[in-house]
Amino acid sequence: MDFAYTPEQESLRQEVRAFIEENVSPEVRQEIEELGIRHRGPKVREMYRKLGERGWVGISWPKEYGGQDGSRIDQYIVEEEFARAGITVGGAGSGAPAILAAGTEEQKKYFLPGLIKGEISFALGFTEPQAGADLASLQCRAVRDGDDYVINGQKMFTTAAHYASHIYLMARTDPEAPKHRGISIFLFPMDTPGITVRPLWTIQNDPPAPSGTTYGDARTNEVFFEDVRIPASCLLGDENMGWYVGAMGLNLDRVGASRYLISVKRDEDIVNYVKENQLGDYAVAEDPSVRDRIAELWIEAQVCRLMTMRSMSLVEQGGNFTYEGSAEKVFAPEHGVRTTETISQILGPYAQLLNGSEDAIEEGVFAHNLMGSFQSGINHGSTQVMRDQIARRGLGMPRG
Amino acid sequence: MDVLPNEEEQMVKNLAREFLEAECPPRLAREMEKDDLGYPPELWQKMADLGWLGISLPEEHGGQGLPLTYLGIIMEELGRAIAPVPLHSTAMAALAVAEAGSAEQQRQLLPRVSRGDLILTWAFTEQTPRFRPETIHAEAVPDGDDFILTGTKMFVDNFNVAEQCLVACRTAPAAADGDTAAANPGAGLSLLLVDTASRGVSHTPLTTLAKDKQSKVFFDGVRVPQANLVGPRHQGWPIIQRMLDRGTALLCAQMVGAARKDAEMGIDYAKNRAAFGRPIAAFQSIQHICADMILWVDGGQLLTYEALWKMDQGLPASVEVSQAKAFCNDKCEAVVRSSQVIHGGMGFMMEFDLHLWFRRVTAWTMRLGTSFEHRAKIAQSLLDQPGRVRLGMDQIPVG
Ligand SMILES: Cc1cc2nc3c(=O)[nH]c(=O)nc-3n(C[C@H](O)[C@H](O)[C@H](O)COP(=O)(O)OP(=O)(O)OC[C@H]3O[C@@H](n4cnc5c(N)ncnc54)[C@H](O)[C@@H]3O)c2cc1C
Prior knowledge:
The complex is a heterodimer of chains A (400) and B (399). Chain A is α+β, with helices and mostly antiparallel strands and 400 residues long. Chain A folds into 3 domains: 7-90, Butyryl-Coa Dehydrogenase, subunit A, domain 1; 122-239, Butyryl-CoA Dehydrogenase, subunit A, domain 2, CATH 2.40.110; 255-394, Butyryl-CoA Dehydrogenase, subunit A, domain 3 (Up-down Bundle). Chain A has helices spanning 7-23, 26-35, 42-53, 72-84, 96-102, 105-117, 242-254, 257-276, 288-316, 324-347, 365-372, 383-394, and strands at residues 122-125, 141-145, 148-156, 166-172, 183-189, 195-201, 219-231, 235-236. Helices cover 44% and strands 14% of the residues of chain A. Chains A and B meet through α8, α9, α10 and α12 of A and α7, β10, α8, α9 and α11 of B. Bound molecules: flavin-adenine dinucleotide (FAD).
């Protein structure tokens, strides 16, 4: 066991901080405020380009595809520092783990360097109106036609669809097979003819959520596919094996710095806030009940951190996840909810004030969080389904 | 950064588990609840022969000189097997001697500990069940080459079989060295090694939830040679704090081991018990309880080993220790209670073994610091010093 970073890793962290200080200028920040982090404006794109030059995206990916063959821990350090500055680097939903595991040589050579340079990003097309947690019942169809596939159907909550360059789509290729065995994954450009994107607006962003809000995206989408024709080379992994291909990536996509920080950032925020502020005559940080509760939440946040480190350690040891990724995905989001709700009781009526309101605390971030903290326990595998997986895969308990 | 056990640590763990599965069935824990000694000397001797008793004691005194994480692994496995052995109290006192004892004390005591022919214990708590220096009233007054020790200690572990007891006592008022008592309540405390067979020492056994051996111990004008002082006179508090921290983290390891075994028994039981035409393990509500049990034990385990590891590195670790203990108190209790629930009425039956784990883990939540007490320490370190906090960066302990 070794609970420390190496001196090299500590100096990498310093380098990343210096880079952020130098390159994440007020203008870059303003662009992020206006457009959202994933929706890249020109200044943000420039920043990502420099980041790519440093070799800091996909550090743990193979050299031949633009990575560094480096350690997952190094990659985590970069992700963490950027996530703290409100910037996503790699992490959840990159699609890369599945491409590395199942992609053809051609796909790896095309997508991975593109992801690193920031020229490619994926919208994740999993969920449908009738297939959420029970994803394997999805109905969007892909039919083989000569050298092509033709796609028809609808996706739901496809978050990045209005700015991503590509979609990572799960579709049904064999409607006769048992539901897990008739699914395939396709990677193709969002500007392919026949795709329509319609916005869905979240409750968290009216008024606009301040940066640092833990879910934050104002918009997600529904996406419609009408006779969308794509070459067969867009297939990732074998036909009808998409469920298993997706699963290879999913555990790795569930872990990492941004996932972890989504759940614990507000612990730091509330501690720092009550240290530096009083509410009128009320010295919050001296209230024994508040102190006890804050300490309790802090301990849980440490557990979130350590569970993330456990996942990183597992990746480094090349080991298999049985339930550890799911464990993290239950504990951290539920912890995030507990903290968010506790903050509302610590700050009382001030915690209801939204961004822009007179007397709002920290631009209303705590109020905006209250509207969305539970979301990270729903998407990317709900806590209920994650607990099922811990019980079944981790503990060998039978299906109901 | 690798929070998982390495190959060597895993090997020690596997060997310990195999040995205890063969040599320490639950029957033994049950028998020892009614035994006068409370531990089986044969098992103790075998543990000594395996090198466990001195695993983290210095090599020059017959130990193995391995980091505390190794002792943690042994404690975890002992907890899993609810092994009725006096290692926890012995290790706490022995490690304090290894840290702060004189060369002579170390030479005299430590090799005997490793060999298995010296059981030790420690005594801190008096009437006030808080681990604060101002709770100590037992007093040692110099008299020639000796001290005369007077006071009463509570909850002293394994006192019935310990040959020596490391006693926290006052050798000067709290305001010694010109400090005011409020500014430095730790001043004036010392640690004394007391031979339990000395004149003036007596004890009353306590009847406890875990049915372990704890005593109320009376020191009535006991004569103790000044050479038995462990560490500097009047300045024992930092040594005591480190002893308590180590003991607390090691207790957490024991709790985690016991709670995980208890959870596994619940999971196995659920797979084999049928209701409404299927194994109860097929019900989602049962599955989710089981998933939570594993999450909680895992969390406690990670916190515990981080604390032990920090101590090994010589880093401040008392915040990490408090994190581990507060979490283990709440969550290990929830684990063993949940497992009782899964067992329905059966877990409540004396003849069924589950309660052996349940009662012990429950009792351990009350030992070496309650959740409130530990969280108060964490709150101090978070809130009572300047500067912004950040998770994963060091928290500096206060007090
Ligand atoms: C803001 C936002 C962004 C999103 N972004 C994306 C994206 O980019 N791409 C994408 O594909 N999807 C995305 N999603 C969708 C997300 O992954 C789904 O919401 C999630 O999978 C749950 O599906 P659902 O909403 O249909 O809920 P349902 O599946 O209808 O579930 C409703 C409730 O039932 C529970 N439940 C379901 N099955 C079980 C069971 N077996 N046992 C017990 N309880 C159960 C669930 O846990 C949940 O609490 C996003 C969602 C939101 C809100």
